[in-house]
Structures are given as structure tokens and as C-alpha cells.
């Protein structure tokens, strides 16, 4: 179930939506073509410049957030905890990862140390999400996190979401890719999805962020107007299963 008339999920896809699970249907998903509206592009160097100005919050290699270790980038850090506890991710402003990002094995709870309470992680590579991403505060009013990457030539899935455990598991974050986002397992995503291609291998539960997100929108996240788009002129098109 993708949103509803009263509470639409903020999904903007300029391209294709594929659904491959034979046991599920995307009941309320309507594809609306608005030819004059394009997926907003991101400028990689803008994120890099912002991260460098943010106390050089740049991580210059592939990054895996999955174990009990501590990882620093600028003033911010990931603190893994033993015995299966949720890991802490402290982040503000823009962080730039010059490589692939994998979040697995441990759920993550993110914190902020400054006001406004928002952050964006730009991934100059592929992103794999296999664990929950949760906010430590009221989301998105008092805390919000976004992930952004570009279309990477030769990569099938620019953002691959494969969290086990069904729709009780959650991602509280905004997701943007200039290429393809694949949702491989049932999960609840509370946020905004923006991509050229959205692949649904299993149908997720998608929940729109509250209106408070307009006042606490993730730093440099593209297309604020599109994330809360109300379409005046549209036509329905058939989406092949």
C-alpha cells in the first residue's frame, strides 16, 4: 500500500516503476506523467564542498557500518556497540563518502549535535541498506537524515534496500538516487523516495513524512517542492507488472 489520498507517500520517479513480487500488488500506486517536470539533478562537487566546509566531514574510501568499531569523519562518528545493541551515528550538515556505503548487521540510531537537526550523507558510489535506520528524536520535526547518490554507470542498483524482518522494520530517512533504487524486502520506509527507476521486488509500506519536514528539510536534498508535489495536470498510465 503506497500512501493514500489523505496521506500520499512522497515518491517521485522520473522513469520506470517495476513490481516483481507475484504474491503482492501495488494497490494504490498510480503513475503520473508530468513531462515538464524532471528529476532534479544533484551536483556532486556541491556536496563535497559543503562536507569539506563542515569540518572536513569526508570519508575517502568504501565505508561499512556493521560492526562494533568506532569510525570518525570530521566531528562526527559511528559508534558500534557490543551484544547486538543499536549503533549510534552522530551526524550534522553534509557528510561526503567517496566510495560505497554499506549499513548491515546492526541497526543504526542517528543523533544530531547542532541546530537545525538535520543531515545529508552523499555517497559517491553504491549504497546497500540491510539494517534499520532510526532517529533518536521526533522524526522529522526534530531530527531527519537523507542519503543521496548519483546514477553510477554499470551499477544495477545505486541504492539497494534489503532489510530482513518484514514491515515492522523501519527506515526513517529520505532517499535520492539519480539511477535506480531497489526495495528487495518488505519494510516500512518513512520518508521520501526520489529516483529515475524504482524496483520493487517485494512491496514495502511507504509512509509520507509529516508536514513538519518542510521546516526541517535535509541539507542540500534535491527537489523540496517535488517531495511535497501536488499535481494539477496529470494523466494515469498503466504500469506493467
Description of the molecule:
The structure is a single chain. With 241 residues, this protein is mainly beta. The protein has one domain (10-237). Helices cover 6% and strands 37% of the residues. The chain has two helices and 22 strands. The chain has helices spanning 44-53, 224-227; strands at 10-19, 31-32, 58-59, 63-65, 70-73, 76-79, 87-90, 93-97, 101-103, 108-111, 118-123, 127-129, 133-135, 144-149, 159-161, 170-172, 174-177, 180-183, 188-190, 192-200, 205-207, 236-237. Strands 1, 3, 4, 8, 9, 11, 12, 14, 15, 17, 18 and 20 form a twelve-stranded parallel beta sheet that branches. A five-stranded mixed beta sheet has the order 5-6-7-10-13, with no helix packed on it. A hairpin with a 2-residue loop joins strand 5 and strand 6 (76-79). It is globular and about 40 Å long. Residues 1-9, 24-34 and 229-237 have low confidence and may be disordered.
How is the biggest beta sheet arranged? 12 strands, parallel
How large a portion of the residues is in β-strands, by DSSP E?
A: 35-45%
Helix/sheet category? mainly beta
Shape summary: globular
Number of helices: 2
Low-confidence stretches: 1-9, 24-34, 229-237
List the helices and strands and how they pair.
Blueprint: E1 10-19, E2 31-32, H1 44-53, E3 58-59, E4 63-65, E5 70-73, E6 76-79, E7 87-90, E8 93-97, E9 101-103, E10 108-111, E11 118-123, E12 127-129, E13 133-135, E14 144-149, E15 159-161, E16 170-172, E17 174-177, E18 180-183, E19 188-190, E20 192-200, E21 205-207, H2 224-227, E22 236-237
Parallel strand pairs: 1-20, 3-8, 4-9, 7-10, 8-11, 9-12, 10-13, 11-14, 12-15, 14-17, 15-18, 16-19, 17-20, 18-20, 19-21
Antiparallel strand pairs: 2-22, 5-6, 6-7
Amino acid at each position: 500500500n503506497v500512501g493514500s489520498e489523505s496521506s500520499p507517500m512522497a515518491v517521485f520517479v522520473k522513469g520506470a516503476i517495476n513490481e516483481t513480487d507475484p504474491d503482492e500488488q501495488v494497490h494504490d500506486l498510480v503513475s503520473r506523467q508530468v513531462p515538464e517536470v524532471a528529476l532534479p539533478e544533484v551536483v556532486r562537487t556541491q556536496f563535497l564542498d559543503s562536507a569539506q566546509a563542515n569540518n572536513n566531514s569526508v570519508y575517502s574510501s568504501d565505508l561499512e557500518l556493521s560492526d562494533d568499531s568506532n569510525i570518525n569523519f570530521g566531528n562526527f562518528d559511528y559508534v558500534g556497540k557490543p551484544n547486538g545493541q543499536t549503533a549510534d551515528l552522530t551526524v550534522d550538515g553534509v557528510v561526503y563518502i567517496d566510495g560505497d556505503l554499506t549499513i548491515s548487521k546492526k541497526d543504526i540510531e542517528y543523533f544530531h549535535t547542532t541546530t537545525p537537526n538535520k543531515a545529508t550523507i552523499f555517497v559517491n558510489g553504491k549504497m546497500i541498506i540491510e539494517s534499520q535506520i532510526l532517529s533518536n528524536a521526533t522524526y522529522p520535526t526534530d531530527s531527519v537524515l537523507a542519503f543521496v547518490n548519483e546514477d553510477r554507470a554499470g551499477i544495477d542498483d545505486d541504492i539497494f534496500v534489503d532489510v530482513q524482518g518484514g514491515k515492522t522494520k523501519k527506515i526513517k530517512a529520505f532517499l535520492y538516487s539519480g539511477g535506480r533504487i531497489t526495495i528487495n524486502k518488505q519494510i516500512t520506509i518513512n520518508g521520501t523516495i526520489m529516483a529515475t527507476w524504482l524496483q520493487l521486488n517485494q512491496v514495502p509500506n511507504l509512509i509520507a513524512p509529516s508536514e513538519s519536514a518542510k521546516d526541517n528539510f535535509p541539507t542540500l536534498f534535491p527537489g523540496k517542492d517535488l517531495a511535497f508535489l501536488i499535481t494539477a495536470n496529470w494523466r494515469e498510465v498503466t504500469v506493467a507488472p
